[in-house]
Structures are given as structure tokens and as C-alpha cells.
Design goal:
The protein has eleven helices and twelve strands.
């Protein structure tokens, strides 16, 4: 990196809540925040209707109301997808906490793996039934409308960028914001990811890949549907979640920073399959080494892993970490067992966990994995994300001095 980059604000909304105090309180609990969702009615062998139930990481009713209030606050917002509304909601909070003026010249880069999921499926279903398309179907489902609506809402005159790079999307937003700042073309950037994937069709796609957690009526808050980081699991246990997260980036080390970005890394590997990375996650090895730069691996106190709860995904990332860190493995954690896999938003929600751990000087453990030695202090935390296509990103966060 040309220079350190300050994170001056963070905001999120997910199954864990919508403010740092609530989110941290929920991280300290050993309970997960996944709930059962009834998808649709299917017919069993006796031709009787049965309800299919799956686990999801869904916003609380209180936070769903906040998003609905936002939707109804402006006639132009009533036809926007949840992905856009999530992004607007967290962006308003972030710039307020960063003390940025709403009409300031800062850039916006928001990403989403799937984009306007619910709205696209709604319009497509209408087309199948009527052979006609709604006037707003195209402008409200294009990927670029996330950042453009955020920029409109905040009245910024800076650049606005949207992109989709599967599950590492949010961390690619962060990379892009840093690139703009380092180029001298912008001093400030708001970067984030937003995802609202809890539709029948999207969950069915994950079930078709055989990676989704099987429903078990005996599960409760202490019996975890998603076994992310459990290397002894015999079944894939990924669970989808919804949410958004955003951070404000500023050039150099500023006094009001909440954490510093000291290194970034990225890599794409040659694919063996459309959905998987190699057994030793070559992309992660490269991205982590790039993020470390000249810093010794021994200086890393913890890693917030991507770890989606799949057998191969979790194991390959562990293998990559073992290759890079050898016998001195940092403290390992992930948040997907608690709030689900939020696709394009997941990397920034992992950044949130890392920042909270740095601020509170306390690691958040995965309660069902083997005991790990906890670091005496937290100064440097590595955050990983990867997605379909073998595109990995690693970000090195350091505690503000």
C-alpha cells in the first residue's frame, strides 16, 4: 500500500442488529441468530401439502420495520429493492458518525453479489404470467442502481461505482476505494456491500449445489445449524443471511480513525470447478501474503475467516492458513455460524467483527470448535473473503495507536 488508510466510521444491519453496541452484545453470546423460514408448499408422496422449512439469517422485525419506514419515507423509494434500501440505511448512519457533510465530495462504491434479488424475481414472474414487463423493471434491477441511489440520497458529487464479484464483493469495494484514494483522485470514499438473498429461488440454488444446511427440528439456539469452522462435520451447513455493511475511508492516519488498513491482498486462481477453490486455496495464500507485505506472519493476532460452513470451503481456507503461517497459527474465527452467509456483504460484516474485537480487545470464539489459545492483546487482524470464481481478498487491520 502507498500509505495507511483510516476507517473513520462503520455501520451495518444484519441479524445481529443495527448498531455497534447491539452487535457486540450479540457477538458475546454463544447463541446463533438464525431462524426458521417457511419457503413454500410442496407435495410429498401422498400428495399432501407440506411446508419446507430452512434456516436463514434474517433481520429482526424491528429492523425490518426500519427498512419499511425508509421505503415509505419517499415516493421514489417505494419501488426499490431491499438491497438498495439496506445500503441507503447504513450509509446515512456511517457518514453521520464520520462527521461527513451530506453534500461533500466523497466517492461511493457499493457492491452486491446478486443485486436486486427479490425485485428481479418479482418482475420476471409478472412477465411469465402476462408477457409484459413493468416500466420500472429495468432501472430498479440494474446493479448500478445501488451506488447511484446511495449517492442520490447522500447528495454527494463524487464518483459512484457498483460491482459484483460474488462473495468477495464487499472487500473488492474496499480495494477500489483505497485505489481511488491512493491515486489522488479522491480523499474520502464510502465502501460497502449489501445483500437481500432470502428468496425461494436463491435458497433453492444453494440447495441444488448441495451446500445448504439441512433442516433439523431438534436444533435450538445452542445446537448450531451452520457449523462454520467445524472441520469434523460430515455435511455442508451453509445458511444464507441478509444485511449490509459500510465503512468510511479517509486518506492517511487521521485522529478520529476507529481502525487502520495497513495492507490489502487479492488473487484469482485457476478453477477446477465453477464453485470451488483448490484444496489448499492458492488464491488465499497469495492474497494473505500480499496483505502481509513485509510484516511477519508471527505478528498477526487473529484471522476472521471467510469459512462459509461447507466442508471443502472451510478446509481449503484452513489449509491455506497453515501454508502461510506454518506452526504459529493465529486465533481463528468467523461469524457465519451466527448470522449466516450474506454473500456480497459478508466481507464488510467480517471487517465489522474485526474492528469490534480491536476496539474491545477481546476475541469472539466459535463455541463448537476446539479450544484455541487467546492472544494477550489484539493489534493486527487479517480478514478474508472469497467467492465463486476463486477471487480472494485479504485485508490487514491494525489497532489505532
Amino acid at each position: 500500500m502507498n500509505q495507511p488508510i483510516s476507517i473513520t466510521s462503520l455501520a451495518s444491519i444484519s441479524a445481529l442488529g443495527n448498531n455497534p453496541q447491539e452487535v457486540w452484545k450479540n457477538y458475546l453470546s454463544d447463541n446463533h441468530f438464525l431462524i426458521e423460514k417457511i419457503l413454500h408448499q410442496t407435495k410429498n408422496d401422498n400428495s399432501k401439502n407440506t411446508n419446507e422449512s430452512v434456516f436463514v439469517g434474517q433481520l429482526s422485525l424491528e429492523n425490518q420495520k426500519k427498512i419499511n419506514d425508509l421505503r415509505n419515507s419517499d415516493s421514489k423509494y417505494k419501488n426499490l429493492d431491499d438491497t438498495v434500501l439496506f445500503a441507503i440505511y447504513v450509509s446515512r448512519i456511517a457518514i453521520k458518525n464520520a462527521n461527513w457533510k451530506s453534500n461533500e465530495n466523497f466517492g461511493v462504491n457499493f457492491g452486491s453479489s446478486r443485486g436486486a434479488t427479490k425485485l428481479f424475481e418479482k418482475y420476471h414472474q409478472e412477465f411469465l404470467e402476462t408477457q409484459q414487463s413493468s416500466t420500472l423493471s429495468s432501472p430498479t434491477t440494474t446493479l448500478g442502481n445501488i451506488s447511484s441511489w446511495v449517492a442520490h440520497d447522500l447528495q454527494t458529487s463524487g464518483p459512484e461505482i457498483s460491482h459484483s464479484i460474488t462473495c468477495s464483493t464487499a472487500l473488492h469495494s474496499l480495494l477500489n476505494g483505497i485505489a481511488w484514494i491512493n491515486s489522488g483522485m479522491s480523499d474520502k470514499f464510502i465502501v460497502g456491500g449489501s445483500e437481500a438473498p432470502l428468496t425461494h429461488f436463491t435458497i433453492a440454488q444453494m440447495q441444488a449445489l448441495k451446500v445448504y444446511a439441512k433442516h433439523n427440528s431438534n436444533l435450538n439456539s445452542k445446537n448450531y445449524p451452520c457449523r462454520a469452522l467445524d472441520l469434523n462435520k460430515t455435511k455442508n451447513t451453509m445458511v444464507l443471511g441478509e444485511g449490509a455493511a459500510v465503512i468510511c475511508l479517509e486518506k492517511g492516519e487521521v485522529e478520529h480513525a476507529i481502525a487502520m488498513i495497513s495492507g490489502v491482498g487479492y488473487a484469482t486462481e485457476i478453477l477446477q470447478h465453477n464453485t470451488s477453490v483448490t484444496a489448499n486455496a492458492d488464491c488465499f495464500q497469495k492474497s494473505m501474503k500480499m496483505a502481509l507485505g513485509t510484516i511477519s506472519p508471527d505478528e498477526i493476532d487473529a484471522i476472521v475467516m471467510h469459512a462459509p460452513g461447507t466442508i471443502r470451503g472451510d478446509q481449503s481456507e484452513i489449509n491455506a492458513i497453515s501454508k502461510v503461517f506454518c506452526s504459529k497459527i493465529p486465533f481463528l474465527t468467523t461469524n457465519k455460524w451466527k448470522l449466516g452467509h450474506t454473500f456480497g456483504a459478508s466481507g464488510l460484516l467480517s471487517i465489522e467483527l474485526a474492528i469490534l474485537m480491536l476496539q474491545h480487545q477481546k476475541v469472539v470464539a466459535v463455541p463448537f470448535i476446539s479450544h484455541q489459545s487467546k492472544p494477550k492483546s489484539l493489534k493486527k487482524i487479517l480478514v478474508n473473503a472469497v467467492g465463486f470464481g476463486g477471487n480472494a481478498v485479504s485485508v490487514l487491520l491494525t489497532k489505532k495507536l
